[in-house]
Amino acid sequence: MKKIYTLALSVFAALPFAAVAQEVSSSMLINLKNGQTVEYVLSDIQNITFKTSEQTASAYSIAVPKTFDTGWVQKVMVDGKQVAEICREYIKSINAQRDVVYVCDENGRADLTKGMTTLGEAVVWNLTANTATVTGSAAAEAAATVYYIDGEITLAEAGEAVAATVIPDVISDRRGTELNTYTIVKIGTQYWMAENLRATKFTDGTAIEAISESGADAWKANTTGAYLTDSNADWVQIAGYLYNGYCVSSEHGIAPEGWAVPTQEQLMALRSAGNLKAVNFKSDEILTWIDGATGNNITGFTAIATGYYSTATGLNLMNSEAWFWSSTQYYDAMSRGDNLDTLRITSTTTGNVVVSSSALGGHALLFGHAIRCIRK
Questions:
Q1: φ and ψ at 43, to 5 degrees?
Q2: Distance from the first to the final alpha carbon of the chain
Q3: Of 21, 41, 117, 256, which one has the fewest beta carbons inside 10 Å?
Q4: DSSP secondary structure string for all residues of 256-284
Q5: How many structural domains compose the chain?
């Protein structure tokens, strides 16, 4: 918190006490700000000590980012502590995207029952139902600055406010000498990686086997975890890698610390929060989907059409479908092996996101899919 220092008796700060006693008078008059005058007899004073008082600033101004290019979730920091967060997020109940500011607790976690949009609307999330209630009239124009005052967010200007620092909330995922940084997006009450995983090591630093697209035999033989290599480093940065299901089930761990591969139930909640529609989840950038199949990306999930890999087809449906692993595993009697549920997004412009189940059928662990992680 900001420290404010005030000097008591500052009018005499530069004068030696003896000079005061000899040259001013035999008494000292102190005029206080409240209008009172206090008089001291100098012969009664042994010494004068000038003390500082420490006060804590309680009002902070928060400059709302004009764009969220550095991340869909931004941290509001005061003296190294996170006091709030700003999310550019999709809210299903109003079918619109808003910039919402939430107060954070002592651990830097947002209180989703105390949100305020930059248009002045209150946002209250039901954590069980994964739905939001938005109340209040929206202003004609979004506020460029909001204020954090005594633990509350307000649009009312505070004259003595101190500027807070706003920085992107990102995942710094270090695995041995490898470091990957991922942006984060809030969708409903969940926080997701806004990018596909691109690690070449397990969480504990153990190397994941790298297999090229032509290495079908090696891929088929692998039961410890493998990823499909790609020589285009720029594309890997955008789209990540495809991993077999053994990476998900490995005891070495595949998710960044504090994160997890989502369960089938969590994927269903994601699908619902995004209003089911695939177009809401797909990247709106060119070349990430076939012509005419890009989305509006209103949720910020930024799905890339990476297709899938199998030994039967090779790399298939590149630029027209996206597949993601879940951690929900079950035995499939038809294939006589373990399957994992999946999330599938297709190029159909009017289609919905599809989440598999044991009834609908997931994919065998030999398939290669992208991985997105959810915050624990």
A1: -70, -15
A2: 29
A3: 41
A4: PTTEEPPPHHHHHHHHHHTTSBGGGTB--
A5: 3
Region of residue 333 (phi > 0: left; psi between -120 and 50: alpha; otherwise: beta): alpha
Q: Is residue 306 part of a domain?
A: yes
Q: Which two tokens stand for residue 198?
A: 């691109």
Task: Convert the pLDDT of each residue in 132-145 to its tens digit.
Answer: 999 999 999 999 99
Q: Give yes or no for a contact between 262 and 270, defined as CB atoms under 8 angstroms apart.
A: yes
Residue 241 near residue 198 (C-beta atoms within 8 A) = yes
- pTM of the predicted model, to two decimals? 0.85
Which residues, in sequence order, are bridge partners of residue 67?
A: none
CB-count burial class (<10 Å; 0-12, 13-18, 19+) for 43: exposed
The position carrying tokens 């290599």 is: 229
In this structure, the answer to whether residues 105 and 246 fall within a common structural domain is: no
Q: Are residues 42 and 94 in the same domain?
A: no
Dump pLDDT digits (tens) for 75-102: 999 999 999 999 999 999 999 999 999 9
Sign of CA dihedral 61, 66, 70, 74: positive
Both 198 and 279 in one domain: the answer is yes
Asked, for residue 173, whether it belongs to a domain, the answer is no
CA 199 – CA 227 distance, rounded (Å):
9
Q: Which two tokens stand for residue 332?
A: 């499939």
